[in-house]
Design goal:
alpha+beta, binds nickel (II) ion, 429 residues, 37% helix, disordered N terminus
């Protein structure tokens, strides 16, 4: 083989190494800004579908970088498209923007003092789930990618999504709405990446191919019997004892009615409401809960079994149970595309370092990134953000008023998101 042939063989590798180095340099250059952005966002959290200030901030940023920007997608969503200098695939990055009705207790200098109305009550608002970090990281990645636009073999689509936590009442999720409004079209997205910060070693990355996070479906069961004096229960139909049987009966769905080797599942009852007085058996009991699964088929089988179990237990006592499962408005399981995740894991390893990349376990929490993954190949991963010196076993979890994010972990997020885009483009151009 002549020297020229060797050069041709080496060229993609040389180009790749060059781009990869460029990403790291550009990421270093935005680190301070990313930290500043996050502090600002943290101090000004907004509830789901009210992310007006946040949306304006990200839209201005994207415009200043030369992105083609669309605003007010699914209420407050912002989408930026940047065409690279060379042809190639379309890669999307997604960041959720909303805060939570939580009153912050961190005592940080940039802690939130924002108040808003939620469900008819005045509440404190806090970025207690770290979506401020997701926005700042993705703004940073958007800048890194814009600064190497001419070298990019493909198109970047940045999706800033509202209402991951769900607007009040929590039945509409931002991802679902954005998809309905065509966010994955024009140009059509080939792959999507997203991250979530969580307690863990700062800068560590956790990922897993296949089922990763659970589905989450709202459950309501209304048991109707017949009112009677509590001293004369045979004079009516007691919906309270029937509800007790249903609550226990539901626990046999996971242990007796679906294949436990397939994947784990949970049904939990969170509220039970009935009665006015100790010596009156009421007409009705209303209970609500949640169903979590990791598989599309098990999810629908579960819904059928929960319904049958509740209805038949009620029927056996002469009562009725009306079961409502909000599958249309629930989250699907977050299932990482297996080939995509395997192909991108070396990228995450390079970014985090071998000792800081972990295969995650499944988590029974849920995430509306799953709606994107139902449409196109997608990979979601976790970034550890616990400040050093804290006890990792006892640190405040997401949604806590004490939830903390380490500034030093932000750069890992920016590098991960940027490298994923560049590596995916190189692998698929
Ligand atoms: Ni979250």
């Amino acid at each position: 083989m002549n020297k020229c042939g060797v050069l041709i063989l080496l060229l993609p590798g040389i180009l790749f190494a060059g781009l990869s180095e460029r990403v790291d340099k550009l990421a270093d250059a935005v680190e301070d800004k990313v930290i500043e952005w996050r502090h600002d966002l943290h101090q000004h959290p907004e509830l789901s579908n009210q992310e007006f200030r946040t949306a304006a901030k990200v839209a201005n940023h994207l415009k200043s970088l030369g992105y083609e920007v669309q605003t007010e997608v699914a209420v407050t969503g912002v989408v930026g498209v940047l065409k690279g200098g060379k042809p190639g695939p379309v890669v999307a990055l997604r960041a959720d923007m909303d805060g939570l009705p939580v009153t912050e207790k961190t005592g940080l200098p940039y802690a939130s003092t924002v108040k808003a109305e939620y469900g008819g009550k005045e509440v404190g608002v806090m970025h207690a789930c770290g979506h401020d970090a997701h926005v700042a990281i993705t703004m940073g990645a958007a800048e890194v990618l814009a600064n190497m636009r001419n070298e990019l073999p493909g198109t970047v689509k940045i999706i800033f999504q509202p209402a991951e936590e769900g607007a009040w009442p929590a039945t509409v999720w931002g991802a679902q709405q954005m998809i309905q409004q065509g966010v994955l079209q024009n140009p059509q997205v080939d792959a999507i990446f997203g991250l979530h910060v969580r307690p863990g070693k700062s800068g560590a990355i956790l990922v897993k191919p296949g089922p990763f996070m659970a589905s989450s479906d709202f459950l309501r069961i209304t048991v109707t019997g017949k009112q009677t004096h509590a001293a004369i229960p045979w004079g009516g139909i007691d919906p309270i004892t029937i509800s007790a049987q249903i609550i226990l009966g539901l626990q046999t769905v996971a242990s007796r009615q679906v294949d436990i080797l397939g994947s784990p599942s949970i049904v939990s009852i969170g509220t039970v409401q009935a009665g006015e007085r100790n010596n009156i058996i009421p007409d009705q009991v209303i209970m609500t809960g949640t169903i979590r699964t990791f598989d599309h088929e098990i999810r629908s089988a579960y819904h059928e079994r929960v319904t049958r179990t509740a209805e038949k237990i009620a029927e056996s006592a002469g009562a009725t149970a009306e079961v409502y499962i909000g599958a249309d408005t629930g989250y699907s399981p977050t299932i990482n595309h297996v080939e995509l995740t395997k192909a991108m894991t070396p990228t995450l390893q390079r970014v985090a370092g071998k000792e800081n990349l972990f295969e995650s376990t499944m988590t029974t929490l849920a995430e509306d990134f799953s709606f994107f993954q139902k449409e196109i190949p997608g990979m979601f991963f976790f970034l550890g953000v616990t400040p050093p010196g804290r006890d990792l076993l006892n640190v405040a979890a997401n949604h806590s008023p004490l939830f903390l994010v380490d500034d030093a972990a932000m750069i890992t997020g920016v590098r991960a998101m940027s490298h994923l885009v560049v590596d995916y483009m190189i692998q698929n151009q």
